[in-house]
Amino acid sequence: MIITLAFLDIKPECVDAFITASTANAQASRQEPGVTRFDLVRQLDVPTNFTLVEEYRDIDAVEAHRTTEHYLAWKATVADMQATPRHSHRYQIL
Question: Within the chain, what is the greatest distance between any pair of CA atoms?
């Protein structure tokens, strides 16, 4: 299993639109065969900070996700909503 945590800092005026776009992306991502978890979480003390918690069966599923229409549409939609560039880290379940 591979876990990806993607960290996003969103402009305050874009939060609602970001949540809408990201929720749709998460719902579509959960339907992919190699995805076992895909959640959007919001930081309690900094409500413009979000994390995507993504769990994949293997690296092939990660790469497949990055080519889906819903991911590419989400990426383009939220690009200008970000206050800072998003960053992510991949983890392996031990």
Answer: 39
